[in-house]
Write a structure and sequence with these properties.
With about 200 residues, the protein is an all-alpha fold. The chain is about 80% helix and about 0% strand. The chain starts with a helix and ends in a 10-residue tail after the last helix.
Length: about 200
Amino acid sequence: MYAASSLKVLADVLTLSRGVIAILLLRARNFGDPANVVRFVVLLTLLGWTTDVCDGNLARASGRAGGRIASADFPVDILMMWSGGYVFARAGIIPSAIFVGYSVLMAVAALFSRFNRAVVLGFCAPLAGLPLVVSYVYAPRYFVIFVLWIGIVLVADWKRFTQVVDSFVDALPDPERRFIRGILGRLGFHHTGLSR
């Protein structure tokens, strides 16, 4: 019982750590060289995504998934992704006006969809990929590290990746959900019936 409780506490700490990462990103100042900005964001993003992979696995292993902190997982992930884009915009790596416009559009879409998971994730996908794309331009070594990290995580936890895809597709309205399920089925993805 104690081990299960410890696993759950550790999972919760890892979830909250992404909030700390977002705060570090939002408070960062005076980078100078754009490559330094990119390295900083990529390292914190990889740390954050690593905690995201681990916290869910630990919570499920504890047999006590869920709870108040676990319910913050998705919003904390969104905040962390958005914070990385904010740093890039503030540093002039991406146009600030485009980032602000995109952020407003994302917020309006989230509100009008009543925070539909598929809508929010759809808007967050470009933010999640931004550190990867920007590192390709400004810090190629970090781009390679990022790609290797993605490969390792996919190989290590492919089943979980398919579950996340399922949860995204399940949040779509019915006609789109059936269409996407058909495409995924032809590509070899099968509905797992499992979600977060």
